[in-house]
Design brief:
This protein is mainly α. It folds into 3 domains: 1-41, no CATH class; 45-123 and 199-220, no CATH class; 129-195, no CATH class. Helices cover 44% and strands 4% of the residues. It is built from 11 helices and 2 strands; from the N terminus they run H-H-H-H-H-H-H-E-H-E-H-H-H. It has helices spanning 11-23, 27-31, 52-64, 84-95, 102-112, 117-122, 129-135, 153-160, 184-195, 201-206, 216-220, and strands at 145-149, 174-178. Strands 1-2 form a two-stranded antiparallel ribbon. The longest helix is centred in the first third of the chain and has 13 residues, at 11-23. The radius of gyration is 24 Å and the shape is elongated. The two termini are 15 Å apart. 16% of the residues are buried.
């Protein structure tokens, strides 16, 4: 959100129209009306909550990428450059205001930074269908995965009615893969559920691409 002075170009007419709408009985317009400097004295979110451990881990991964860093191809102009993920986190934390719910503030911040399980799922984690099968509960796995089995007919029928979790090591000859017609939102949901089973953020994020490696439009589309 951008806060401008009431005398700034384009804002005064907007406020005036909002006042006119409020006078004619449009409460939604009144509620959405801009208030100049409304957040001028509001404390920034970074003053109260900041996931330092997660930001540090992501920044370290970016540093270790060496030539894979976004700014490296631009040459030596960027003296003493800091990791982009660190800069992004600090700027975002400075712009977002605090609320009375610190836990919710942190949740929103991590969602915007793609640190949450949903965001990590969009960062193309390297989790195979077999690993997902071992980690999550799923009543109808063949809705999301296709399976091929080399074995007896009786075993094939048993596999078709199986539910997850399922360790494929206990089912020699069974191979599963993503269905080609799977809905992308459902696939992301399964990936997020599988990621949530890893005990630490470092383990979850270590399976995923860095945010700067992703197409930013696709990464932040759901947000």
């Amino acid at each position: 959100m951008v806060i401008r002075d009431a005398g700034a170009s384009g804002l005064a007419p907007t406020l005036e129209r909002g006042s006119q709408n409020a006078r004619v009985g449009n409460p939604s317009a009144a509620a959405a009306r801009l208030q100049p400097f409304a957040l001028r004295d509001a404390p920034a979110l970074i003053e109260a909550v900041f996931p330092a451990q997660k930001v540090s881990f992501e920044a370290q991964r970016e540093r270790k990428a060496v030539h894979g860093q976004t700014l490296t191809p631009l040459g030596s102009y960027w003296k003493g450059r800091k990791p982009l993920i660190l800069v992004r986190a600090i700027v975002l934390g400075s712009l977002l205001p605090q609320t009375d719910d610190a836990e919710k503030d942190l949740e929103i911040f991590e969602k915007l930074m793609d640190f949450d399980d949903g965001g990590l799922a969009r960062r193309e984690p390297k989790i195979s269908p077999a690993e997902i099968a071992r980690r999550i509960d799923l009543a109808q796995p063949l809705r999301y995965f296709s399976a091929s089995f080399k074995g007896d007919a009786e075993d094939t029928e048993e596999i078709e009615g199986a539910q997850l979790p399922l360790d494929l090591d206990d089912c020699p000859g069974l191979t599963i893969r993503w269905r080609r017609d799977i809905d992308e939102a459902e696939k992301l949901d399964l990936l997020a559920r599988a990621l949530a089973t890893y005990p630490t953020y470092e383990e979850r994020a270590g399976l995923c691409k860095r945010p700067e490696e992703m197409d930013q439009t696709a990464l932040y589309a759901p947000i």
